[in-house]
Design goal:
mainly alpha; globular; single chain; 107 residues; 6 helices
Length: 107
């Protein structure tokens, strides 16, 4: 019988064990947003919030209710730009990273 692990628990453990993994997750979530894959980006960002700052601390940092933030980062969520910027800013501060944008020309 094969042993299985809960995906979300695995992500939380990996982020806590490997801070670089958390930074890569944040980078990937932002890249997905910018490339029009908001559904996947929201879910990835939700997993990252759960593994790092948590929704209660995110609520304190953004001034938005925890339940609203959870809905925004759900599969059917629709955070506005102000909310998304606040969420990304709080996660960025938690991870102690800055964003740097690089443009790539597509032929």
């Amino acid at each position: 019988m094969a042993l299985t692990r809960d995906f979300k628990s695995t992500i939380i453990e990996r982020v806590q064990r490997d801070p670089e993994f958390a930074k890569v997750m944040l980078d990937e979530a932002v890249t997905l947003f910018l490339n029009g894959e908001a559904d996947t980006a929201r879910l990835m960002l939700r997993d990252l919030v759960n593994a790092t700052i948590g929704f209660e601390a995110l609520a304190d940092a953004t001034g938005r209710p925890s339940k609203s933030l959870q809905r925004m980062l759900s599969a059917s969520g629709n955070p506005g730009m102000d909310n998304l910027a606040a969420i990304l800013g709080a996660v960025r501060k938690t991870l102690k990273v800055d964003f740097e944008v690089h443009a790539v020309q597509v032929a």
